[in-house]
Design a protein that fits this description.
By secondary structure, the protein is an alpha+beta fold. It is 28% helix and 18% strand. It contains 18 helices and 21 strands. It has a four-stranded mixed β-sheet with strand order 1-10-9-8, with helices on one face. The chain is globular. The two termini are 37 Å apart. The relative contact order is 0.20.
């Protein structure tokens, strides 16, 4: 497999990241986007999606069936979530103010807002789409959407407070909304947003996978109840309505017949088969699943051979890089020798070969998913942690560990997400054995739900007087450009920085400058320099390792739009469909 970078043309977007979560809840191997597009140009040899027919020509009918990531949910309050399955769910059910119409072309289009105008650099006027209705669930009861819905959504994220006035650190996008000075409802169809300063990233914040508008009266009724994860709490304006939900990973959606555009599928179902490859394979062969991502090359190759001409393989980057986090603002992980030793002890190439059978690429703090903004692999492998000379890497890691007092830390717990270990059986042992072999201490894996891990991150419990770390998927990449996320995560003045706490003066300077830079070519070079500085500081609290390349099999009747490494359920609502005239449709269970 070549190391060809994806999204090499992402530089045309001129925008930033909106999803500010720290923990990913599944690789895109889980088909959390419904087996939907999650890469643009695939590595060599992979097909890309053909041009879509007109909307009228797309056939209606069929219920799409995919696998879910199991019990990986934090809340049904999208403003306070950072779990990939939640952003996928709300992509089906809820519209944002605007949305990504195309990641590959860098096109943001209307969603709840049909259009917008920018009379000056600090003013944006949004005009509401005239024919959008909320789902017919109490207390909203199918009413027409109005401008006030958009205004209250923005105001809530600016404030970052619960209805009773309580500050809540789980408003993960609050920092991105601080550019807003005021929001005015001009009339029932018009919202005027005034920014404090000119900002190149605000529309991208509004187009983010987690920036979905909820009805104000639903928040009033359910804010204290959203963690209970009941389907009646999800009320949107999107093309699918959540009909049933089980936290273990079974979901059912039905078409919103009042959606303003044609929705092709009758519905969508998710089955909890993510960690059971044998069950997934059997279900896919029987067409009870419309797509399947084998973790074993032999299984993928066998399918392609046995079903030649009937299924198509798509190779695509995972939306979720693999890494972990620690808090570097207190002992022990504020010691550069310790964090550097851990960073260098990870054998990234062994993980790629042993866990992913070669289906992955090395990743720095800006992954190859955002190729135009990160350093190429030929430069990446010159930095400690990525060297090809493994013996040198291990010797230097051991030396740093001893210099930082690592042997005195005793046993070190490594938290591993349960679904990550479920998919990569034996992965936890591989990681702990790597660290123990190089550094000498006893490293013990503890399998935990993602909800436990994300709670510990917020409380700065990875580090900060403790010696435990974690490893797994981090939150999905949601934007072709990393500028805003780099600012919010690594700039020491930002609240999210406090969860990592590794202050780098040069990164502060670069990220401050990014927020005022409208020249995208300059931002590309500035982001590359940020990557270099972060890697020199061993990840600065987020030690990236790799990005997987998924091998996704789809029956030929399954038609879709662009293939990109992002959550695209909002696109699939109208772009995906089943060609019931294709021969492979025959025999598919209803």
């Amino acid at each position: 497999m070549t190391r060809r970078r994806l999204l090499g043309t992402a530089g045309v977007t001129g925008v930033g990241v909106a999803a500010l979560g720290l923990v990913g809840c599944g690789d895109d191997d889980d088909d959390d986007t419904g087996g939907l597009p999650t890469a643009t140009t695939a590595p060599s040899g992979s097909p890309t999606a053909a041009a879509s027919p007109t909307e009228a020509a797309k056939q209606k009918g069929g219920v799409a069936r995919f696998t879910s990531a199991g019990n990986t949910w934090d809340t049904f309050d999208i403003d306070r979530s950072r779990f990939t399955p939640v952003s996928t769910l709300f992509g089906w059910t809820n519209l944002g103010v605007v949305q990504w119409d195309s990641y590959t072309k860098g096109v943001i289009g209307g969603a709840l807002a049909e259009k917008w105008e920018q009379p000056d650099k600090q003013t944006i006027v949004f005009t509401l789409r005239p024919n959008v209705y909320w789902h017919d669930k109490p207390p909203v009861n199918g009413r027409l959407a109005k401008a006030e819905d958009i205004a209250k959504f923005i105001e809530r994220n600016v404030a970052g407070k619960l209805r009773d006035g309580t500050e809540d650190p789980n408003f993960y996008r609050k920092s991105a909304f601080q550019v807003v000075d005021k929001v005015e409802v001009v009339d029932e169809k018009t919202v005027k947003v005034t920014l404090k300063t000119p900002n190149p990233f605000f529309l991208n914040t509004l187009a983010g996978a987690y920036a979905k508008v909820q009805a104000p009266e639903a928040i009033d009724a359910f804010e204290k109840d959203y963690a209970n994860l009941k389907p009646e709490l999800v009320i949107g304006t999107g093309g699918m309505i959540l009909k049933s939900f089980k936290a273990e990973g079974e979901l059912e959606y039905v078409r919103n017949e009042k959606f303003y555009r044609q929705v092709n599928w009758d519905g969508v179902k998710y089955l909890n088969l993510f960690t059971d490859q044998s069950a997934q394979l059997a279900a896919f062969e029987q067409k009870q699943l419309d797509s399947f991502s084998p973790t074993q090359n032999a299984v993928a190759d066998d399918l392609l051979k046995r079903y030649q001409g009937k299924i198509t393989e798509y190779k695509q980057f995972s939306a979720n890089p693999q890494a972990g986090t620690y808090y570097g603002g207190a002992a022990p992980w504020n010691n550069p020798n310790l964090i550097g030793a851990i960073f260098r002890a990870f054998d990234r190439r062994a993980l790629i070969q042993s866990l992913l059978q070669g289906n992955a690429v090395l990743s720095g703090n800006v992954p190859p998913t955002q190729a135009a903004f990160t350093i190429p692999e030929k430069e990446l492998i010159t930095f400690p942690g990525y060297l090809e000379d493994r013996a040198k890497e291990e010797a230097e890691a051991k030396k740093m560990w001893e210099a930082g007092g690592g042997p005195a830390l005793g046993e070190i717990i490594v938290d591993i997400p349960d679904i990550w270990e479920g998919l990569y059986s034996g992965g936890a042992a591989l990681i702990t054995n790597q660290l123990q072999k190089v550094l000498g201490n006893k490293f013990t894996a503890k399998i935990e739900p993602y909800s436990t891990i994300t709670t510990k991150i917020v409380k700065q419990e990875y580090g900060n007087g403790k010696n435990n770390i974690w490893f797994g998927w981090i939150t999905e990449i949601t934007d072709p450009e990393p500028s805003l996320l780099n600012y919010l995560q690594y700039n020491s003045k930002q609240p999210q920085f406090q969860q990592f706490g590794v202050k780098i003066d040069k990164v502060d300077q670069l990220t401050d400058a990014l927020m005022q830079e409208f020249d995208i070519a300059k931002r590309q070079e500035m982001n590359k320099e940020i990557v270099r500085e972060l890697i020199k500081n061993y990840g600065a609290g987020i030690p990236y390792t790799l990005v997987a390349v998924s091998r996704i099999m789809r029956w030929n009747y399954f038609k879709t739009g662009e293939i990109v490494p992002f959550v695209t359920s909002h696109q699939a609502v109208t772009e995906s469909w089943f060609d019931q005239t294709d021969p492979t449709w025959q025999g598919r269970p209803a």
